[in-house]
Amino acid sequence: MKKYFELDPWNIIQNKLEPEDNRVAEGIFSIGNGYMGQRANFEEDYSGETLQGSYMAGIYYPDKTRVGWWKNGYPEYFAKVLNSTNWIGIGVEVDGDKLDLEKCKVENFERVLNMKQGYLCRTFTAEFSSGKRIKVEAKRFVSIVNKEIGAIKYSITPLNFSGMISFSPYLDGDVKNTDSNYDEKFWSEVSKKTEDGQALLLIKTKKLDFYLCSLMKYDVLKQAEKCKCNVEHFEKEKFVGNTVEVRVKENEKVAIVKYVANVTSRDFKPNELIEVGEKILQKAYNKGYENLLNEQAEAWEEKWKESDIIIEGDVSAQQAIRFNIFQLNQTYTGEDDRLNIGPKGFTGEKYGGSTYWDTEAYCIPFYLATADKKIARNLLIYRYKQLEKAKENARKLGFQKGALYPMVTMNGEECHNEWEITFEEIHRNGAIAYAIYNYINYTGDKLYLSEYGLDVLVEISRFWEERVNYSEEKHKYVILGVTGPNEYENNVNNNWYTNRIASWTLEYTIEALDYVKNNETSKYEELIKKLGLKEEEIAKWKDIINNMYYPVDEGFGVFLQQDGYMDKEQILVKDLDPKELPLNQHWSWDRILRSCFIKQADVLQGLYFLQHLYDKDTIRRNFEFYEPRTVHESSLSPCIHSILAAKLNKEDKAYELYLRTARLDLDNYNNDTEDGCHITSMAGTWMSVVEGFGGLKVKNNMLTLNPFIPSKWKSFSFKVMFRGCLIKVKVGKDNIKISNESKKDIKILVKNKPYFINSLKDITICAE
Ligand code: BGC
Predict the structure, then answer these.
(1) Which residue's CA lies nearest to atom 7 of ligand 1?
(2) Do the Cβ atoms of 637 and 623 come closer than 8 Å?
(3) How far apart are CA 67 and CA 418, in angstroms?
(4) What is the mean pLDDT of residues 77-86?
(5) Closest to 321 in 3D by CA, of 333, 306, 311
(6) What is the pTM for the complete model shown?
(7) CB distance 427 to 490 below 8 Å
(8) Pocket test for ligand 1, best of 602, 636, 680 (most atoms within 8 A of CB)
(9) Residue tagged active-site, from 487, 633, 674, 691
(10) Cys bridge to 104: 126, 577, 628, 679, which one at CB 3.0-4.6 A?
(11) What atom of ligand 1 comes closest to residue 634's alpha carbon?
C-alpha cells in the first residue's frame, strides 16, 4: 500500500510535493471550525492539479437537477454547499517571476497539519528558472474562538540574491463548484471596496439570496517590524486585491500576515454585513496574529481534554484516531441547530455538503459522548424542524399520510436524484427514529419525547404503515421495491434491515406513546389531539409488528438480506482477484448488482443497532455469513463490522477492520480521498474504539463496559460524558482503570460486575 504521509502522534506530515496526489493531500490537510472550512490549497498560484475549495456551512445552492431520464417525483434540484470566496489567496512574484510550484524546482517541501493546536503549515524552497532560490514558510488557521476569522502568515527568505518580492493578497469570489450541473457559476457581485492594506467583497448567490461578505486586512513585516510599501489596488468582477512590493536582501525574511473575516446573511441582515464584518475583522487585527494563534492552541487544548483517545504502542493507530477526532471537531460544533454534518465535511464537494442518514446512524454517538447533550439534541431538532418538509416529501411520492425524510437534504426537501436512492432507500426513516431512541437511552432525557420526539416518531410510523403491504400469499406484511443500506442491490423485496427497522420503529413509537401517556398525561392528550392519532392506527401498527415478514435462510441460520439473495452466485471476497477491488472502480454497475457482494453493513447494520434484542450466536452466524461477502466500499462499513467483531471476541478481525476505518483517508484505502475525507465515517472510527474495543453501552440507565485491548497496543484510553459525569477509561494489558473526573458518584458495570466510583476517584480492575 502506498504511504502518503509520515507517522506522528499529533501531526499529519507530507514531506514531498507529489503533484499527482495533491488533491488527496488538499482534502486531508483541510482546516475548519464548523462555520467554514478550507481545503489545503496553496496561497500562491498553482497551475498543477488542484481543487480550490472554501466552504461556508449552510450556504448552498439548489443546482438544477440533471438526469438522463426524468421520472415523476424526482427532486427539482441537487443542493450543494457552495465553493465560496477564495480568501487564502496571496499571489507572489520574485523579481517579476511568478511563484508557481508546478513551474519551479521545489525542495524540502513539508506540509504539516498540527492537530494539537489546529493549524496548517507548509515550508519549501523554490528555485526559479533564473536560478534565484527562496525559502517559503506559510501557516494558517481558521479560528475556533472567533468563528468568522481566518489568518495566514506567509514568509519568504531570498536564499541567494537580493531583490524585489511582491505579494498580492486578494479575495476571489469568481469561483465555481466542480460539480456544477450546467457549468454555471452561482455567485453574483453585490459590492466591493479596495483600499491600501484592506479590501472587501460582498457577493450573493443567484438563487436563495445568501450573502457572503469577505473582508481582508494585512501587514507586511520585515524582521518582525511592519513596513511601509508601495501599494497598488486591483479589482475585477467578484475580485479585489492589493499588490505590495518589498525590496529584500539575501537571507532577509519578509512576511505578509493576512487577516480575513467571512460574515454571512445566515447570521446578519445583508445590509449590515459590511459594518459587522469590519468590526469583527478589526477586532481580530487588533489582537494580532500571534495572539489569535495562541487562543487557537488553547481552545484546541480544551477540546482535546474531552475528546482525545490515547493509544500507546501503535503510532499509526494513534495518529489515525486523532485525525478522525480532529476532523469531526472541525466539521460540526453543534452551536447552530440549522447545520448538520455533510459526509465530506468541508474537505471536498462530493455529496454536496448535504445531510444524509450518516448523521443519525453514525455521528450521534460521538457527539453524545464527547460533548454536552445539547449538541446531539440539536442534531435531532434539525430533523424535527424539517418534519413538515418530510411530510410534503411523502405526499409528493403519493403517500396519504406520514413523513418520509429525504435521503439527502439541505432544508428538508429531498435533493438527490438517483431513483434508487431517492425513492428506495427508505430505510433512512428508521435511522432517524433510532437516533431518538439512542439519544434518550444515553442521556435519559425522556422529556424529549413529548417536546419533539413523538411528533417525528408518529409521522415516521404512519409512513411505514402505508408503505408496507399485506401479502395474501405469505399472510404477512412485506415491503417491496427497496434499496437497503447495501446500495449494490436495487429494487429488492423484503430487505431484512428495512423490514426490521420499520417494525422496530412502530414498536418504539408505541412504547414512547405509553411512556408519555403514563408520565405526562396532559401533554399526552395535547399531543394526540395535535397529531390526530387514532386508536385504529395504533392497532394497525401492532398488527404489522406481529405479522411482519422477515426473510431467513434456515440452512445458514441467518436473516436474509432480501428475498432473492440466495439465488445469487455465492462467492467470497477472498476469492476475488485483488486487482478487481474496489469493485465500483473495476466492474460494470450491472455486474455489481447481479453479484452477491455487499457494499456495507446491511443485515449487520440492523444487528448493530438492535444488539440488545439478539443473542450473541445469532449475531455470530450473521457476521460469519455476511462479512466475507462484504467489500466495504462504503466508508461506513468497516466500523460497524469492527464493533460486531469485538463483541464476538474476534479480536484480530476487529483490529483489522478498525485500521481500515481509521486510516481510510490517510492511506487512501478506497482510492477516493481526492474527493475529500469521509467525515461521517470518522465518527464510526471513534465508535470502533469506544463501543468496539471499550465495549461501551448504556443498559438500564447504566454505563457498561466490556473492554479488551488489541494485542499490538500497550494501552488505550478514552473519555466519555455520561449524564453529568466525565469518565475516563484506560485499558491496559493487565488492568482497566476507570476514573470519575466529575463531582457526582457513579455506578457502572464492567464485564458484567457493578462498581461504585465516587466523585474524583478511580478504580482499577484486573483485565484477566
Ligand atoms: C453510502 C451511503 C451513505 C453515503 C454518504 C454512500 O456511499 O452507501 O450509506 O449515506 O455514501 O456517506
Answers:
(1) 634
(2) no
(3) 8
(4) 95
(5) 311
(6) 0.96
(7) no
(8) 636
(9) 487
(10) 126
(11) 7
| CB contact at 8 A, 326 and 115 | yes
Average pLDDT, the chain: 96
Q: Which atom of ligand 1 is nearest to the CA of 487?
A: 8
Q: Which of 601, 25, 664 is nearest to 317 (CA)?
A: 664
Give residue 62's identity as a one-letter amino acid code: P
Asked if residue 199 has pLDDT above 80, the reply is yes
The DSSP line for 612-625 is GGS-HHHHHHHHHH
- Ligand 1 atom at minimal distance to the Cα of residue 485: 9
For residue 651, the model assigns a pLDDT of 95
Task: Clarify whether 127 is annotated catalytic.
Answer: no
Region 597-603: what's the mean pLDDT?
A: 98
Who lines ligand 1 at CB under 6 A? Answer: 343, 351, 356-358, 485, 487, 599-600, 634, 636, 680
Q: Beta strand pairing status for 187-195 and 163-172?
A: unpaired
Q: Grid coordinates standing for 725?
A: 459525569
Q: Return the residue whose CA atom lies nearest to atom 6 of ligand 1.
A: 634
Query: What is the CA(85)–ligand 1 centre distance, in A?
Result: 28
**Residue 227 near residue 220, CB atoms below 8 Å:** yes
Q: How far is the CA of 431 from the centre of ligand 1 (A)?
A: 13
Backbone phi and psi for residue 396, each to the nearest 5 degrees, phi listed first = -55, -35
Cα 119 → chain centroid: 19
Residue whose CA is closest, atom 3 of ligand 1?
A: 358
> 634 C-alpha to center of ligand 1: Å?
6
Beta strands in 334-474 (DSSP E): 469-471
| pLDDT bucket at 535, cuts 50 / 70 / 90 | very high
**Nearest residue to 735 via CA among 705, 763, 758, 697:** 763
Question: Hey, what's the cell of 452?
Answer: 419533539
C-alpha cell at 421: 436512492
Q: Ligand 1 centroid to 526 CA: how many Å?
A: 38
**Closest ligand 1 atom, residue 351 Cα:** 5
Closest protein CA for atom 9 of ligand 1: 485
Cell of 379: 442534531
The predicted pLDDT at position 707 comes to 97
The 10 Å Cβ neighbour count of residue 224 is: 7
Closest-CA residue to 513 (of 455, 431, 454, 463):
454
Best residue among 331, 355, 358 to mutate for probing ligand 1, ranked by most atoms within 8 Å of CB: 358
Q: What is the pLDDT of residues 357-387, one digit of tens each?
A: 999 999 999 999 999 999 999 999 999 999 9
Report which ligand 1 atom has the smallest distance to the Cα of 343: 12
Angstrom CA distances, 208 to 64, 66, 187, 211, 530, stand at 13, 19, 11, 9, 32
Report the C-alpha gap between 248 and 718 in whole angstroms: 50
The pLDDT score that the predictor gives to residue 261 is 98
Instruction: Report the distance separating Cα 682 and Cα 3, nearest Å.
Output: 20
Percent of the chain residues topping a pLDDT of 90 = 95
Model pLDDT for residues 683-701, shown as the tens digit of each residue: 999 999 999 999 999 999 9
- Provide the β-strand partners of residue 12: 113
In single-letter form, the type of residue at position 472 comes to E
What pLDDT is stored for residue 228 in this prediction? 86
Separation CA 687–CA 620 (nearest Å): 19
Strands 715-722 and 119-127: unpaired
Report how far residue 319's alpha carbon sits from residue 6's, in angstroms, rounded to the nearest whole number: 10
Three-class SS state of 731: strand
Q: What is the average per-residue pLDDT within 344-349?
A: 93
Specify the pLDDT at position 86.
Answer: 98
How many angstroms separate the alpha carbon of residue 150 from the centre of ligand 1? 31
The CA 617 to ligand 1 mean position distance, Å, reads 29
